[in-house]
Input
Amino acid sequence: MTFCVVGINHQLAPIALRERVHFKETDIIRGTEILVSESTPEVVILSTCNRSEIFFLSTNPSEDLAKVEAFYGDFFQVEGVKPYIFQKMSRDALKHLFEVTLGMDSLVLGEDQILGQVRGAHLTAMELGASGKRMNKVFREAITFAKRVKARTHISDHPLSIAYIGVKRIHGQIDLDNKKCMVVGLGEMGRLALEHALERGAKIYACNRTLNNSQKMQERFPAIDILPYDQMLNGLEEMDVLITATASPHKVLNPDQLQPRRKPLYIMDLSMPRDVDAAVGELPGVTLVDIDQLMGEAQENEQEIRGILLGYRDVIEQKLDELQDWDAGAAVDPIMKSLNERCDQIAEDTLNYIYRKTEMTHNQKRKVDKIVRSALKKVLREPLLQLREMEDGDKKRAAIEALEEVLER
Output
C-alpha cells in the first residue's frame, strides 16, 4: 500500500475554481463511497475554503493517482480542472500531510483552524469505515505532532490576522469589556474585527450602507445592535471605538465631521484606500491606527512564525522516517499470516499422510502434530524476525516486495 494525495489548493487554483470543487458534508460521504468502491480501500477527504484534497492508500499508485485526478472533474462536472491538480505519493504525500496539519501550507501561516479541520476529516473517514490501521496511524501521528509543536512554540500567540492584531492592540489600551464599538463596513475584514471585538466583551453597533447586510450580521450575532448608516456621525458621540473596513473610494470620516470629544475615541482603519483622514488622528482625545501600522506587526509575526516552523523541518523528516519504518514493519504482518497459513496447510497434508501410513494412538498423534507444526514454524520464525528488525528501510521494503511476489504465485 502506498500513501497518496491528489488535490487542489490555494497554491495553484483561484478561489472561483476552489469553490466549484468544494466537498460539502454530503459530497464527502458520497465521494468516499465512490472512491472506496473503486479500489482505494482507505480514503480521507479534506475540504476547506483553501483546499480540497483526497488522501488514500493504493496498491497501484500510478493508476489510482490518475483515477482520483479524473474523479474531480467527473464528480463536480467541472471542465479545465486538470492543470490545477497536484499529485504526491509515498514520502512526499506524508510530508504534505504533516505540513498542512501544522499550518505550514496555509494561506495564513501557522493558523490553528486547519488542525481541527484535519482531525475532523479523519474522524469522518473513520465513521464511514474508510480509514483503517495504516491511515489512522498516519493521521494520528500528523495531528499529534502538530499539537505538540504548537504547544511548545506558542505560535498561536503571534497572530497574522490584521483584524485580530488591531483589536488586540485596542484592547491593550482600553479594556473592551462593555465598551461601545461601532463597526462600519461588514465585508470579510469588518466581520473578523467585529467577531474579535465581540469575543472581548465589546458592545457592537453594526453600521453599513446596505441595511440588509447589517440585518444578516445581526442574525448571525444576535447580541449586536444595528445603527443606520445616515446616523453614523451622531452615533460616534457615544462610542469608545470605531472600526472601519469599507470599500469606499472616498473618505468616510474627515476632521470637520467629528464633534469635540467628551471621552476618548480609538479608531482602527482597516481599509485600503483609507476610510479615515489622517488628520483625524491629530484631534484631541482621538487615537488612530491604520492598516500600514498593523501590517508591520503582522509581517514581523509572520517572519517569526516562519522561522519557528522551518526549524521543525528536520523533525518532520525524522517523523517520516519513523512512519515509513513502522509501515514497513506493519507490512510484515500479513506476510507472516500468509506463511503461517501455508505452514498449517503443509502440516495438515503431512500429518494426514503419516496417519494413513502408520497406526498411532490418539496421544501419539497429538505429539507428532505438535512436533511437525512447531518444526515448520521454527523454520520461518527466525528469518521473519530478522526481516521485522531490519533497519535499512529500502532493503526491508525490497525484501517484503520479493516475498509478496513469491506468495502471489
In short: Strands lie at 2-9, 43-47, 51-58, 86-89, 180-184, 203-207, 225-226, 241-244, 265-269, 286-290. The mean pLDDT is 87.
